[in-house]
Amino acid sequence: MYGKEAMSTPLPVEPTPSESGIDQHRALYRRWRSQRFGEVIGQDPIVATLRRAVASDRTAHAYLFVGPRGTGKTSTARILAKAINCTNRSEDGEPCDACPACVSIREGRAMDVIEVDAASHGLVEDARDLVMRALTAPSELSRRVYIIDEVHMLSPHAFNALLKMVEEPPDHVVFVLATTDTHKVPATIISRTQRFDFRRLGTDAIVGKLSRIVQAEGAQADDEALALIAALADGGMRDAESLLDQVLAFAGDRIALGDVREAVGLADEQAIVVLLDAYASGDAAAALDVIESLADVGRDMGQVAAQAEAEARRRLLTATTDPAAARRLATILRRLAEAAGAGAREGRARLAMELLAVESMAAQPALAAAAAAPAPRPAPEPTPEMSTGEPVPAAAPAPVPAPGPEPSAEAASSVRPELAAITARWAEVVERAAPAIKPLLRECRPVAVEGVRLTLAFPEERRFMREKASTRARAIEELLAEVLTGSWAIECVSSNVELEPLTVAQAVANDPSDPDGQALLEGVLRITGGELVDVPEVR
């Protein structure tokens, strides 16, 4: 939360149109970026430590800021650069944000505060250039500060080039490394820095700042609308400010809960409840109807999948006393998580949810049959009549249930070839594959089929091929639909599977230099009338 002193300090704003001659909007997250330690919200222990270090002149030579995106890592790094170079800072280490050093850093024109995006400058040449520049004295400020964002994107050689400088930089240099993936940062780098872990912001803290922004913008917003924005931001202040900017552009000066839903593409909560009910009961038709209706009104299917995932998680937490329902919800939750994650990134969220509807329908009869299956009858006790050798009338057969309604189109599409049939045709699938995916399919084998989901297993040492196949899932699924018919969803896993030969040539004469094997191969081809097709092996 903002402190009293911070709230009384005006934040920097973009020049007015009359001053700049250009009428343009500046993003809220840029205009409302924290400029002093007192304006950083939700990171009180980190702020207190850095303040004391600056006030007591005990700043480190290198820092590592770790945490999710939008939690204040880069902003705090800039404030630290201000505090180190401020000529009029307070006794508690707070920069004044008004002296020439603070103003130049705030406006991004300080030559001695260098921000580097490692995602686009991660090569060893960039690191060596940075090291050479760090050896020179500051041109304007008392200390030079390097802020390296997404530092985990540096190449291994770049890390090696930077290592010695991070360990023992010149007295006039301070490094601030920021990352969202600390496990990708070498331990040698981490051990030479002071690490600070930024945590996700609480909903109340985000709503508090959003309320101040809305008021400063001359607008009004319902509490429910701001709470929904804060929930969607998932603990990131920058994401919350960006969403607020988007909603303000959509709704104008009055924001209601419905405006947030429309602007972001969220589905109505009741629709999500109906969708989860349909998944849980195996009602594919109802689930597909909900998905189609939401798509028709322009809802973002990735967001819909995320909403459904949250609802499934909520139900799973309350189903602990019902193991069968919990198992079913766990399966649904895994599929929805895939749809909201990789499915949304690849534009396949709707397809993933539709496949889940069919899978749920296919699984429901099996569950019902298992629950309703009668217990096996014990063998009858021997009777005197049995000992006479006279025939004993057989027990009356169990009544056959009346046939149900004809299966729907969705049910018919869920009938899949057996695994053995798919395995038998896998050579055909490989042969008809495009050049980009043929080497991938050659390095795996189908090992399981469940509804519309086909599991492809790769040997443990083929992990790279498995990862590439996962990124080409859509192309592989389209190929399967062409060769095997129907709709498919693949799952690529690592296993100890052995790559059995796909063709007679591979099975009989793997080694072309083996004359006996070649003779045997020719005999097989003469007997069967087959033809030898040369398919190069890709490793």
Account of the protein in words:
The chain contains 27 helices and ten strands. 36% of the residues are buried. Helix 11 packs parallel to helix 13 (257-264) and helix 14 crosses helix 16. It has a five-stranded parallel β-sheet, covered by helices on one side. It has a three-stranded mixed β-sheet with strand order 8-9-10, with helices on both faces. It has a two-stranded parallel sheet with strand order 6-7. Residues 1-23, 366-380, 383-415, 506-511 and 535-539 have low confidence and may be disordered. By secondary structure, the chain is of the alpha/beta class. It is globular. A hairpin with a 2-residue loop joins strand 8 (445-450) and strand 9 (453-459).
Radius of gyration: 32 Å
> How many alpha or pi helices?
27
Q: In terms of per-residue confidence, which ranges show pLDDT below 50 for 5 or more consecutive residues? A: 1-23, 366-380, 383-415, 506-511, 535-539
**What percent of the residues sit in helical stretches (DSSP H or I)?**
40-55%
Helical/strand content category: alpha/beta
Strand order, biggest sheet? 2-3-4-1-5
Percent in strands: 5-15%
Largest sheet: 5 strands, parallel
State the end-to-end CA separation.
57 Å
Instruction: Give the overall pLDDT as a whole number.
Output: 80
Total beta-strand segments: 10
- What is the approximate shape? globular
